[in-house]
């Protein structure tokens, strides 16, 4: 048996490797605290579960879904975008469901890339921005997120011949893994860049609803001209504690959505309609639920940042997301050796920044998705491992 060359070209999936290590430690009897994976620890709100239960009993949801989506779902996304972001979307042509942001981002590569073309991918960034292009038989070109620019790429520094081959540009604000929010004026520069090189901007909006300190993340589509050059992938996973449900939507440029739809009609048969109705309920009746979650993450962010500062790690407090992005403490060669040390000496899992791209070297990521007392214990154990 022989697997495809494109599978061989994939780097090992970071979290698969992490899960293996955690399992090994747990089997050895260590009480491992994992701050590695960004998967909310709290359950989906009961009202959303009730909405799903009711929808499951409605026989109109039992057949093959269409990849266009139920009208109720598309309308709920449109209403949410108008109220929350001031963005008007046509439910008929500018919104369709996606089986999670991950599916959508992966399939956009198949829909838009040819072997000699490129996707420009934020570095550090969500691993699918680089793995997806490889699986599509194309390549990813990393765009380092510059800390001194506020963790955005320097678009003016992208070589012309690289930009000319690019068909896709992956961006994500509020950002995983850095926790950065988009600086004023950046989305406008992105629209100009996309116009100049005629590429499709894919803005990954996985964290727009998890913001702190009064900050409210914008939609990329609120930028003038954005709809001509881009789509946004909006996910319920993180904001509504629904990672297992696989509920997201792609919104924006209708031509791009049409291409994605055409591809998907050959790949999957759409989102279970009961899930679409439950997601519509979440966006309509529980639109403010992520604010409650944000308060919990804000408290955890403060716990972690204060504890890190006490051990001499200076961090920028993030104004959004469920992550703290921190520099590797002095005395360690790189992020991998620090993360190895933390796992071996403290039984704590954190992710090395370099796993999200070369530009992430020198940093590590802490996920805030464990209860407060476990979070405090983890940072305390990290402290004693340094003593
Ligand atoms: C978690 C995450 C995703 C995946 O979202 P799903 O909708 O659950 O597939 C996509 N992008 C980023 C940046 C994420 O952190």
Automatic annotation (TrEMBL):
NCBIfam families: PRK09276.1 (NF006756)
CDD domains to which the protein is assigned, alphabetical: AAT_like
Keyword annotations from UniProtKB, A to Z: Aminotransferase, Transferase
Annotated Pfam families: Aminotran_1_2
Top-level taxon of origin: Bacteria
Organism: Thermoleophilum album
Requisite cofactors: pyridoxal 5'-phosphate
Domain Aminotransferase class I/classII large: 31-381
GO molecular function (one): transaminase activity
Name of the protein in question: LL-diaminopimelate aminotransferase apoenzyme
Record-linked InterPro entries: Aminotransferase_I/II_large, LL-DAP_aminotransferase, PyrdxlP-dep_Trfase, PyrdxlP-dep_Trfase_major, PyrdxlP-dep_Trfase_small
């Amino acid at each position: 048996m022989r697997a495809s060359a494109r599978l061989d070209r994939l780097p090992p999936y970071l979290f698969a490797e992490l899960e293996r290590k955690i399992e090994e430690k747990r089997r050895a009897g260590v009480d491992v605290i994992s701050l590695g994976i960004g998967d909310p620890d709290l359950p989906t709100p009961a009202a959303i579960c009730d909405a799903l239960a009711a929808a499951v009993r409605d026989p109109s949801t039992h057949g093959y879904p269409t990849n266009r989506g139920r009208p109720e779902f598309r309308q709920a996304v449109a209403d949410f975008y108008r109220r929350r972001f001031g963005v008007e979307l046509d439910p008929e042509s500018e919104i369709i469901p996606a089986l999670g942001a991950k599916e959508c981002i992966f399939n956009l590569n198949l829909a838009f890339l040819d072997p000699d073309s490129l996707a420009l991918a934020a570095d550090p960034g969500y691993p699918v921005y680089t793995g997806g292009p490889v699986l599509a038989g194309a390549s990813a070109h990393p765009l380092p997120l510059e800390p001194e620019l506020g963790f955005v790429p320097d678009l003016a520094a992208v070589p012309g011949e690289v930009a000319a081959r690019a068909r896709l540009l992956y961006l994500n604000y509020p950002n995983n893994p850095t926790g950065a929010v988009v600086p004023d004026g950046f989305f406008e520069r992105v629209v100009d860049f996309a116009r100049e090189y005629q590429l499709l901007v894919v803005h990954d909006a996985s964290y727009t609803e998890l913001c702190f300190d009064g900050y409210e993340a914008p939609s990329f589509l609120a930028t003038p001209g954005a709809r001509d050059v881009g789509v946004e992938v909006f996910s319920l996973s993180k904001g509504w504690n629904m990672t297992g449900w696989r509920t997201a939507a792609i919104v924006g440029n209708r031509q791009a959505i049409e291409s994605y739809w055409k591809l998907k009609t050959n790949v999957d048969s759409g989102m279970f309609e009961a899930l679409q109705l439950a997601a519509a309920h979440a966006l309509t009746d529980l639109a403010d639920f992520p604010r409650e979650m944000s308060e919990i993450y804000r408290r955890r962010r403060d716990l972690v940042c204060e504890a890190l500062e006490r051990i001499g790690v200076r961090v920028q407090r993030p104004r959004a997301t469920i992550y703290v992005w921190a520099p590797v403490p002095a005395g360690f060669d790189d992020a991998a050796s620090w993360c190895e040390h933390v796992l071996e000496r403290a039984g704590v899992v954190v992710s090395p920044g370099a796993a999200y791209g070369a530009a992430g070297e020198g940093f590590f990521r802490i996920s805030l998705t464990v209860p407060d007392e476990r979070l405090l214990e983890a940072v305390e154990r990290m402290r004693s491992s340094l003593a």
